[in-house]
Each structure stands twice: as C-alpha cells, then as structure tokens.
Amino acid sequence: MMVDLGHRNGRLTISSRSCDACRTRKVRCEMSSPVLAEAEPCKRCARLSVTCTFDIPTRTRGPRRRDERREGSNNNPGSLGFPQLGTKEASLQYSPASNSRGGPAALAAPGFSPQSSTSSTFELATKPVYPTDALCSRRLFKRILRDYIRFIYPLIPVVHRPSFRNDLDQDRDLHDDVFLGLAFALCAVVVGIMPSRFDSYHTHNPPLRFTSRLETINCCYDLLMGLRGPTYFDEINYQKFAVAYLMSIAFFQLGEQNRSRMMEVEAMQLGRLLHLHKKSEYEGLNCIEKQLRKKGFWLLFYGYVHSQLQNLRREKLNFLDPIWLSSTNIEELLPLEVDDEMIHEDSVLAPEPGTTCLTSGFIIHSKVFRAALVPALQAHRSGDIGESCQCRRAQDVSANIAHLTARLQELSYMLDNTIPPPLRQWAHTPTTESHDGDSVPTAVAPDLLENAVESQFASMRANLHVTHLWLQSIVIDQLDSAEAAASTASDYNVNAHRRKLLWRQREDICRQLLHVLHGLPESALEPNGLHLAFKVRDVAVGLLACPYDEDEMAAKRAGEYIRELTVILSRLDQSEKMNTANLQSWIDTDRIKDGTTHGGTSQNDHW
C-alpha cells in the first residue's frame, strides 16, 4: 500500500513499510513512485548514499492473539528459541550473503528462519539489531572503540578523531561495510595490545563472551573476511589499508607471526597502491585524507626500519627500496603538527602558540626512526646516491664502520633540547585513580571520549625514548660486529679498547632505559604492547656480551641490569603463546620426507 500526500508543488509518495535505514530513524520511506516501491532506493537513502534494504522482519500491528500471549508468558527471550542479544548464548553470526535486492549482509541467529515463531519475530522487531552484535553488545563495542581513542590512538593514529567520533555516533557501520571492518580491526588491536582492558570487558554488563584474547581477535578476523566479496580489492581506500595494518599489529601482539606477516604484506601493498610514499600523488585529496596518509606512510616506515635492522634471514618483503629512499626527501611526508580537531576537509586551523599536540610526539618518533637511515638522506642532499648503498658498504668494511659510527653519533644527541617538555624523559606524570580503577591524569574529563592528555603523552614518552635507546643499542651491536670482523690478531689490543668504549655507551643506554621504565606507571607502558617488550629485550641481550671478567665491577653491573630488566619484562610481555619473531614459524610441506616433520620442520628448514 502506498499513500500519496500533497507536498508543496509536487506529490510525495509515502511507503506503508519503511526500509531498514528509515526504520532505524523511525521515519517512513519517501518513494518517487508507487510502481518503483522496494525496487529502487528511497529518497532518504539515496540522499545519504545508504544501501536501501528491507531485511528486518516486520510484526503485525495490534495486540497479540491469546495463544501467542500464552506462548510468550515466559519473559525470558532465550526460552523462545531466539537468545537475547548481547548474552553469551546469543552468539549472533554476521552472514555476508546479500539479499535479493543486493543490499548489505544480513544478521542471522543460529536456527532462525523467516518461518520462525511469531514471538521470535516480535523479539527481532522490538530489539535493535547491529552487525557488531556478533562480537559483543553495542554498549561494549562502543566502549572498546573509546578505549582505542583514549589509549591506542596516540601511538597508532589511523583515524581522524572528530570524523571517527561522528561516524560512531551516527552508527555508520550499519550501512558502510568498510567502516564496519575498520571498527572490528580497531577492537582487535585494543584487545591484543591491552590485556587489562580485555579483563575489564568481562565485568561489563553484558560481559564479553570470549575467554581469551586470541579467541576474540579470531572472531574479529572472521567477521572481516565475511565482509569481503570478490570485488573487495577493486576499490581501495585508506580505511582498507588501516584494517590490514591493525590486524597485523593485533596478531603480532599474540605471537601469531604467520598471520601477522601476511596482513603486513597486504598493508604494504595497499600502501603502495595508494601511493602513501609519494607526496606528488597527494594532489586532489582533502586535508583530512592527506594527514591520514602521511601518518600511514610513517607507520609502514617503522616496519621498514625494523626489517633493515633485524631481518637477519631476509624472508620479509619491504615497503620501500633503497633507490627510492636515497632519491627522496621523506621529511616532506611528515604530517602537519596540529591535532585532528584543527583539520577540516577544506582547511587547517593554526594551533595555539606554545601548545604541544599529540602529533608532535608522532613526528619526533618518526624522526628518530628516520635518523636510523640518515646517511641515505645526506646522500640525497649531496647528490651521491652510491655512497649510501648497503651493497657497497657490505663490500667495504671501513665504509660500513664509518656509516654506523655516524649513525650512532646522530642518534645519541638528536633529542637534546629539541623536544617539548611533555615528551622529555624526566617529565612528570600526575595520576589518580578514576571511577573505574584506571590510572588517569588528574585533569581528565569525565567523558571517556575526551582525551586523557597527560596519560597519552606518558605513553608516547615511553614509546619515543625506548625506541631512541633501542635504535642506539642495535647500531652498537652492528658496529661491534663490524669492528670485530675488520680486526686482525695484531689489532687485538686496539679492538679490545674500542669494545670497551662501546660498552660504556651500552651501559649508559641501559641506565637511561631503566630510568624511563621506572619513571612511568604501568598504565603508560601497556598501550605500547609487545613492541616495547621486544625493544627492552634487545637492549638486555646486548648486555650479555660484556667484555670484562666476571669479577670486575662492569660485569657485576651488567648482571644487575639484566636481572632488573628481566623483572620488568615479566610484566611487559603478556603474549598468550611463545613468540617466535626471530624463528621460522611455518612448515614447508614440500620438504617433508618419509611422513615426518623432524620436530616441526624438515631438516633443511632449520636456521
């Protein structure tokens, strides 16, 4: 039934049944013609670019029949064969199957069909149904995303905060599968990085139904795969890159190295297709998108530096190549030093003088990683690209030692008098206990959507200074090895002297690291996840190569440092399984012989 009502100068057709989007807004559909009803999008959906569907079942108006009331006398919805949404028994599954009108995926409960009882239909019609119910209740879902903004965003800024909050308030995930996928990936990364928050989700009402972080992240991954159709990669955008990057981080936090590696490769490929590494390709993008893509480039650049410094087996693919890096000034890709609230699609507002924004910390952290490859940038400025070639340095030991010495010198002093007070090593972090037991700054706003600025700066300070010290330690390791390879028997005394000079620098790095870790609360360290623990472990491992005899004071100090760092690592490393980042974690089945795996891999696979 269609109703025609006079509407100013024309005629307005009101549908007797609202589509799913209009039904959520509690309004009737506006159709251009009664003949086209339910065959084309209604006017509201067309205006908002929303997929127009009629999937949610309707119920009969008026009171129920007597037999229906008797059947529904039990007030427990679960007794009707359709569990209450948000409970552990519900376990709603998000089906990627499209409806007959080509609309988005529909929600279905196990055992539910259109021929189910009227009471089940009534339950569906009276309770809001969200695609995120397959993961957790709607309230808990939004709480997890608020935790991302509060704790993780300063370190992994893959969203524009004002736009993301607005999209979340407007329930954009109801009609945008890409945004829905991003939301699932954000939930996965929060659960993976912060075990304490995962524990708190079990006290929520209703609680999270998963018993482990891996189980939760597996659910997020399955839901993401269900959203991908055969044309998923035909249209790409920054959000799809962010989904892949976030899932690689989430899997890494749990020691799922194989899946992390594959998601990282997907993120790198999408980053290259989006030209995140080419500033000239940013033309035509709005101000928000430019800022997001610049941050995305540096997130991938961090992984590139890791692969250059620690990818000893060279099994990982790289986002960049040395030729491009040597011929490009990547500092042009640094994001604007303003917070997201100052960036609009068509303009960027100037920040208040004397203020320090969260993006400042991100920029300084990026410059620290960039300093690991300073000679390449110097070669670009001088026009001598060959000087920075890693292949040439591998053939010329003296050139490699000079390169590493210059890099260590640059890293050692690059933060002196160049960073704002909130990010300095000795900055104070005033904390108090909030209403939910979390350690937060005294100036935090009651609304969790508001930034806990001091706490966020504390997390960034931990990330910045631990990274800075870790990079120096890695360069010392490489310099030590290079000098040992270049020395001969006649140079023994000279080499021993140089090793002891490097040891003094290593000791100083360790003392600074302990100062940073002891000067920050656990709530500031946890958002950094396993990446922080791995960096601390790398510094501690370097202390094992002490050049002094065990009865000397330097050796005794090294032993004390190792014991102290071991205690700290026992708290930082919260992975649910043994992490095999530096070991082969897969099996080449073509190498398996005689039906045996030789302890998990073939004999040729051992490294």
List keywords for this structure.
22 helices; 4% strand; disordered N terminus; 7 strands; three-stranded antiparallel sheet; 49% helix; disordered C terminus; two-stranded antiparallel ribbon; 607 residues; mainly alpha
Walk me through this protein's architecture.
With 607 residues, the protein is mainly alpha-helical. Among the domains are: 1-54, no CATH class; 87-274, no CATH class; 578-607, no CATH class. It contains 22 helices and seven strands. Strands 1-2-3 form a three-stranded antiparallel beta sheet, with no helix packed on it. A two-stranded antiparallel ribbon has the order 4-5. α10 runs parallel beside α12 (287-310) and α18 (453-486) packs parallel to α21 (529-542). It starts with a strand and ends in a 35-residue tail after the last helix. Pfam families: Fungal_trans, Zn_clus.
